[in-house]
Design brief:
The protein is an alpha/beta fold and about 150 residues long. It has a single domain, classed as Glutaredoxin, CATH 3.40.30. The chain is about 30% helix and about 25% strand. Strand 6 and strand 7 form a beta hairpin. The longest helix is centred in the last third of the chain and has 14 residues. The chain is globular, with a radius of gyration of 14 Å. The relative contact order is 0.24.
């Protein structure tokens, strides 16, 4: 079952690129989250999406939000990807695909892991779900929703 608008963010934890455990509950009540699932590190569409989040990262921060990218790649792969493209945001490894299942992110064409973005408000409620293999649109939609929160 997929997370939908109005659902509460489920509690989860995963290892980040610094080897630290990221815990979703540490952010509830503090700041909005933009959580995006992507298929694979260092592939054309995923790189374009990550670089677009990077290029707009300050705008997300100015709106009070933290960006979190999640794929099933290993921490080692994430470290290379983050370093190669100077990505300032959190990358989490979901190599057992538990987070993908928890959020209900489906595969596209039955084999390619889905590309889906969730915006979570400060209180931990899902306020946007966007599923599209078109990588660039995710950033625009997430920023639009976050701007509505601050107005």
């Amino acid at each position: 079952m997929s997370l939908k608008i109005g659902d509460k963010l489920p509690s989860f934890s995963a290892k980040d690129t610094n080897g630290n455990i990221f815990n979703s509950q540490d952010y509830i009540g503090k700041q909005p989250l933009v959580i995006y699932f992507y298929p694979k590190d260092d592939t054309p569409g995923c790189t374009a999406q990550a670089c677009s989040f990077r290029d707009n990262y300050q705008e997300f921060k100015d709106l009070g939000a933290e960006v979190i990218g999640i794929s099933s790649d290993t921490i080692t792969s994430h470290l290379k990807f983050k370093s190669k493209f100077n990505l300032p945001f959190i990358l989490l490894s979901d190599n057992d695909k538990k987070l993908r299942k928890l959020f209900g992110v489906q595969n596209n064409l039955f084999i390619i892991p889905g590309r889906e973005t969730f915006v979570i408000d400060k209180q931990g409620m899902v306020i946007m779900v966007f599923n599209s293999m078109s990588s660039e649109i995710h950033i625009t939609k997430a920023l639009k929703v976050l701007k509505k929160l601050t107005n």
